[in-house]
UniProtKB/TrEMBL annotation:
<dbReference type="InterPro" id="IPR011282">
    <property type="entry name" value="2am3keto_CoA_ligase"/>
</dbReference>
<dbReference type="InterPro" id="IPR015421">
    <property type="entry name" value="PyrdxlP-dep_Trfase_major"/>
</dbReference>
<feature type="modified residue" description="N6-(pyridoxal phosphate)lysine">
    <location>
        <position position="274"/>
    </location>
</feature>
<dbReference type="GO" id="GO:0019518">
    <property type="term" value="P:L-threonine catabolic process to glycine"/>
</dbReference>
<comment type="function">
    <text>Catalyzes the cleavage of 2-amino-3-ketobutyrate to glycine and acetyl-CoA.</text>
</comment>
<keyword id="KW-0663">Pyridoxal phosphate</keyword>
<dbReference type="InterPro" id="IPR004839">
    <property type="entry name" value="Aminotransferase_I/II_large"/>
</dbReference>
<dbReference type="InterPro" id="IPR050087">
    <property type="entry name" value="AON_synthase_class-II"/>
</dbReference>
<feature type="binding site">
    <location>
        <position position="167"/>
    </location>
    <ligand>
        <name>substrate</name>
    </ligand>
</feature>
<dbReference type="InterPro" id="IPR015422">
    <property type="entry name" value="PyrdxlP-dep_Trfase_small"/>
</dbReference>
<feature type="binding site" description="in other chain">
    <location>
        <begin position="240"/>
        <end position="243"/>
    </location>
    <ligand>
        <name>pyridoxal 5'-phosphate</name>
    </ligand>
</feature>
<comment type="pathway">
    <text>Amino-acid degradation; L-threonine degradation via oxydo-reductase pathway; glycine from L-threonine: step 2/2.</text>
</comment>
<feature type="binding site" description="in other chain">
    <location>
        <position position="215"/>
    </location>
    <ligand>
        <name>pyridoxal 5'-phosphate</name>
    </ligand>
</feature>
<comment type="similarity">
    <text>Belongs to the class-II pyridoxal-phosphate-dependent aminotransferase family.</text>
</comment>
<dbReference type="GO" id="GO:0008890">
    <property type="term" value="F:glycine C-acetyltransferase activity"/>
</dbReference>
<feature type="domain" description="Aminotransferase class I/classII large">
    <location>
        <begin position="39"/>
        <end position="416"/>
    </location>
</feature>
<comment type="subunit">
    <text>Homodimer.</text>
</comment>
Length: 427
């Protein structure tokens, strides 16, 4: 087997598909140290709000560890659950689903911080809600949230219709289910409708599954159209909002808020490992009966540890920060708009979107790789993506912006792109 695997690994190297990992010598941040001792500007992280090295989050994590310990050493239904986990679930519900946080008299439910400060239990929180149909369940990753979703809720009588570019964790989660499987072309509503017609002819429940944002292009899923089709055919809508939660939409609740369809999306999954602090952890937010069923039957919840106390504590802090101030969201939006506009002015090909994932298209895989090397040599860390990660002939450098980049940083990055292009392409 060693000989076989070595052969396979060599093949990957020969095809240029071998993935090297850049070793960082510092915290994940806007400027990072790399192994050759240089300090480089970082345009490669999912750290959209720049919170990954935030002193406030680190302090919150330490406070949580002092109070709640390092770990729980098992799963919740056996060894118990900490009230900060249930508090976080309630805080995520009201953050992700603003309607659930509004009491019958229209007043907003307390912020996570106030909830935590008064040690209100999750049951008391929900008792204050006028519309408490929604709930959230934590997982140790979004990969697990997706992995434990479909097989728990959808059986052989049901159908799952999935966008062809959905994240690997949705694909794997769907594979575990016995439901009939359909795949539609990326964001293609005519194809989705054809698949809905076919699926709903014989299925009991039908669910449309989509990423909120497609991470290679920075394109948003057309949620209003998807919800319209779901209504027309009596299907449910599931959105994995990992690349949007924390910053898309007016309060950062994600793509459903961005499109004004928060109460039309039935199941939301997402990660705590990108904008919401950047450590790890995931969740599913859905109607109460769905979440209650997941707590009973979802295998990654039942058979894997829940979030470490430090992450639960720090995530509560992130939600508090986002409720207190929209400054990070505003800065991320300004940075995104500035970088997109300036790069277009410099003649780079950028797919149209408003998302902080900004792919710079080169087409040819060798050119994209040479550009990435030349840009890194100029002190800006970027990576090239080529086939099979993206379609043949659509090689690109995928940049990702964050709220902590300064205008100087952005100007430096743009200059590095322009200068590298002169070296690589002579233009
Ligand atoms: C990053 C990502 C995940 C995985 O999240 P983890 O919490 O790191 O497991 C799942 N789905 C999508 C769409 C993602 O972008």
């Amino acid at each position: 087997m060693r000989t076989f695997l070595s052969g396979q690994l060599n093949e990957l190297r020969e095809q240029g598909l071998y993935k090297n990992e850049e070793a960082l010598t510092t915290a994940q941040a806007t400027h990072i140290g790399v192994e050759d001792g240089r300090d480089v500007l970082n345009l490669c992280a999912n750290n959209y709000l720049g919170l990954a090295d935030s002193p406030e989050l680190i302090a919150a994590a330490k406070t949580a560890m002092d109070k709640w310990g390092f770990g729980m050493s098992s799963v919740r239904f056996i060894c118990g659950t900490q009230t900060q986990h249930t508090t976080l679930e309630a805080a995520l519900t009201s953050f992700l689903h603003p309607r659930a946080g509004v009491s019958s008299d229209g007043a907003q439910v307390d912020t996570a911080a106030e909830v935590a400060a008064t040690e209100t239990s999750a049951t008391e929180v929900s008792a204050t809600e006028g519309d408490d149909e929604w709930d959230t369940i934590l997982y140790s990753s979004c990969f697990d949230a997706n992995g434990g979703l479909f097989e728990t809720l959808f059986g052989a009588e049901d159908a799952i219709i999935s966008d062809e570019l959905n994240h690997a964790s949705i694909i794997d989660g769907v594979r575990l289910s016995k439901a009939a499987r359909f795949r539609y072309k990326n964001r293609d509503m005519a194809d989705l409708e054809a698949k809905l017609r076919e699926a709903t002819a014989s299925s009991r429940f039908t669910v449309i599954a989509t990423d909120g944002v497609f991470s290679m292009d920075g394109y948003l899923a057309p949620l209003p159209e998807i919800c319209d089709l779901a209504d027309k055919y009596g299907a449910l809508v599931m959105v994995d909002d990992s690349h949007a939660v924390g910053f898309m939409g007016q309060t950062g609740a994600g793509t459903p808020e961005h499109f004004g369809v928060s109460d039309r999306v039935d199941i939301l999954t997402g990660t705590l490992g990108k904008a919401l602090g950047g450590a790890s952890g995931g969740y599913t937010c859905a109607r109460r009966e769905i979440v209650a069923t997941l707590r009973q039957k979802s295998r990654p919840y039942l058979f894997s540890n829940s979030l470490a106390p430090a992450i639960a504590g720090a995530t509560l802090k992130v939600i508090e920060l986002l409720k207190e101030s929209s400054e990070l969201l505003t800065r991320l939006r300004e940075n995104t708009q500035y970088f997109r506009q300036r790069m277009c002015e410099e003649g780079f090909e950028i797919p149209e979107s408003t998302h902080p994932i900004v792919p710079v298209m080169f087409g040819d895989a060798v050119v994209a790789a040479k550009m990435a090397d030349a840009i890194l040599a100029r002190g800006v860390y970027v990576r090239a993506f080529s086939y099979p990660v993206v379609p043949m002939g659509k090689a690109r450098i995928r940049t990702q912006l964050n709220a902590k980049l300064s205008k100087d940083d952005l100007d430096r990055a743009i200059a590095a792109f322009v200068d590298a292009r002169r070296e690589v392409l002579g233009s």
